[in-house]
Specification:
Radius of gyration: 19 Å
Distance between the termini: 48 Å
Number of helices: 2
Largest sheet: 9 strands, antiparallel
Strand content: 35-45%
């Protein structure tokens, strides 16, 4: 076993959002084919209904909880925008561009996960712009927040760009060099039945390589080819059929084909029984695929349905995990004067 180091508590200039007298402000966007509800708590996608051809019967296909107290009580990041750095940073530390060690808040043992104890998912964002087709959330993260250097301003803009297509554009600027990796942590279940497993969905990912991990879910040194493994989703495959061959389960980064920075289709998720499907697009280099395995009956939807342990599939476009400590990975660095931009789009059919 590796030697365990203790990371000191990080002083945080802000505290988790606490909503008084009900939920945080919410916004709703709708077309004849989809209706989404988003919340200022975590710039969170709370629900997305897909409608049939007549527009009369809608089915919610993303996991959402009963209220803000329920979101704050759990650590599953359901529907939220994660930051400053989504995914994991080994031993909650990295060296900056000058070689100085930066210590971050540890919230998964000695690991820094999804921005720390008080990440963007727990913050009360401001609705800075809103129209019939879009809503923009804005957040300021002060210098030293969760250990990160610099004052960062982040935005998350949801917009309807077609009757069946939703876009999330995330941006950030910072007055000191800082790693950045923002994503949406939505969980999908195209059946709309959250008391049942989502493992029978069919998944396709445009990736030839994947990142095996250690026992702390930190990527190992070697990037592996997906050929001959349970991680080969280059052709559509039922997740439950692949699971027995996935030696480490499903909580891994897939190294996407295509150019980082260009918006391209990176995955397709479909439910054979209902006929619903979702195409996923992103400008990022990687895709974290996680089959939920930690939901429990104490976690309930707005309609009171208790979640099945495998009720959701998280498809999180992002850069590679632990990239501040891996110069061989796509760069996570945001410098003063630069603007970070990550676009995710979902198309529902």
């Amino acid at each position: 076993m590796p030697e365990t180091t203790q990371t000191p508590d990080i002083e945080t200039p802000s505290s988790p959002a606490r909503i008084q007298g009900g939920n945080a402000p919410r916004a709703e966007l709708r077309t004849p084919q989809i209706r989404l509800t988003v919340s200022a708590l975590g710039a969170r996608l709370c629900g997305l209904d897909v409608y049939d051809d007549r527009g009369s019967t809608g089915t919610n296909v993303t996991v959402g909880l009963a209220d803000d107290d329920a979101y704050l009580a759990q650590d599953s990041y359901i529907g939220a925008v994660c930051g400053r750095y989504a995914n994991r940073i080994e031993k909650s530390r990295y060296r900056d561009m000058h070689g100085s060690e930066i210590k971050l808040a540890a919230n998964e043992g000695e690991t820094h996960l999804h921005g720390g104890n008080d990440g963007f998912d727990k913050r009360l964002w401001t609705i800075s712009e809103q129209s019939d087709t879009s809503v923009r959330f804005t957040l300021t993260s002060p210098d030293g927040d969760q250990g990160y250097p610099g004052t960062m301003t982040a935005t998350a803009t949801y917009s309807i760009i077609a009757d069946n297509r939703l876009r999330l554009e995330m941006t950030a600027t910072c007055d000191k060099t800082c790693p950045i990796n923002m994503t949406s942590h939505a969980y999908w279940n195209l059946t709309g039945k959250f008391d049942q497993t989502a493992a029978d969905h069919v998944l396709q990912i445009t990736a030839d390589r994947w990142l095996p991990v250690d026992d702390k879910l930190i990527p190992l040194a070697t990037i592996k080819d997906v050929s001959g493994t349970g991680y080969d989703f280059r052709s559509p495959a039922r997740i439950s059929d692949m699971l027995p061959h996935a030696t480490q389960g499903f909580d891994h980064n897939f190294c996407l084909t295509g150019d980082r920075g260009s918006l391209r289709q990176i995955a397709t998720l479909s439910d054979p029984d209902s006929g619903r499907s979702m195409k996923l697009f992103s400008t990022e280099a990687g895709l974290q695929f996680y089959l939920a395995q930690h939901f429990n009956g104490e976690m309930k939807t707005e309609t009171g349905t208790a979640l099945h342990s495998n009720a959701g599939i998280a498809l999180e476009p992002q850069t590679y995990p632990n990239s501040p400590n891996r110069p061989d990975f796509p760069s996570p660095w945001l410098k003063p004067g630069e603007t970070y931009r990550h676009v995710i789009e979902w198309e529902f059919n």
